[in-house]
Amino acid sequence: MTAACFTHPIDLIKVHLQTSKGRPHVWTTVRGIVSETGVLGLYNGLSAALLRQGTYTMARFAVYDTVKAQLQHTDGTPLKSTELIVATLLSGITGGVVGNPAEILNVRMQNDQALPPSMRRNYRNAIHGLYLMVRTEGIRSLCIGLGPSLVRATLATASQFVSYDVLKARMLRRGYEDSVLVHFAASFAAGLVATTVCSPADVLKSRVMAAIKLQDTGARTGR
Questions:
Q1: DSSP tag of 23
Q2: CA angle 156, 204, 61 (to 5 degrees)
């Protein structure tokens, strides 16, 4: 949750760039957001981001740790890479399914200010957005973009968790102490790997979720 609060402006800018028809520069996007809605505009959709963290992230970490515990060797030897991949695939799929509604809200609320005023959904918060989605688009709207979302979640979880475990284990074998520095280095490298691997699926997911046709004016205004 804390991480989402710090990284939300970066995530919002990323969604704007992913859903833009042109190729705007990062700083051009930032200036446009701040000039229209102020600095707080960088936190549009924060409630959806927090809901996403509480569903997607919690589910995949819980499943990953549970599966790893079930696969643990009785002789204490580390899990093989194939076993880690099984754990990450299951956790990624679970997280993708559980967190998909919040993912849709997150993308839509972040992208809303990039749309013309007449096309904006104007979700007041995540709960209001969830209510409007189901009311105006039906219960199936909760599964919008589930395909690319599952691909992204699986790629992100597999590349992040496996690379973190492997890199940390190698650093410890090289004689480094199990310290904050080792965890930070492994986390940083794993984050770079995950971002690179899942970027194409992430772009597709954002565009599918943000491009849904609005049903009527009431859906845009929340009336």
A1: -
A2: 25
State the amino acid at position 204 in one-letter form. Answer: L
Give the closest residue to 129 by CA, choosing from 221, 5, 8, 2.
Answer: 221
Cα 184 to chain centroid, rounded = 20
- The pLDDT assigned to 189 comes to 93
Q: What is the mean pLDDT of residues 178-190?
A: 92
Looking at residue 43, what DSSP letter applies? G
Query: Please, are residues 45 and 106 in contact by the beta-carbon 8 Å criterion?
Result: yes
CA 219, CA 53: separation in Å to the nearest integer?
Answer: 26
Under 8 Å between Cβ of 211 and 111: no
Q: Report the alpha-carbon distance of residue 59 to residue 123 in Å, rounded.
A: 25
Question: Can you list the alpha helix ranges (DSSP code H) found in the chain?
Answer: 2-19, 26-37, 46-52, 58-71, 81-111, 126-137, 146-173, 180-210, 217-221
Burial 55-82 (b: 16+ CB within 10 A, else e): bbbebbeebbeebbeeeeeeeeeebeee
CB 98 within 8 A of CB 44: no
Q: pLDDT tens digit string along 213-222?
A: 544 444 444 4
Helices 81-111, 58-71: axis angle to 10 degrees equals 170
Neighbours of 25 (CB within 10 A): 9
d(CA 196, CA 146): 20
CB 205 within 8 A of CB 152: yes
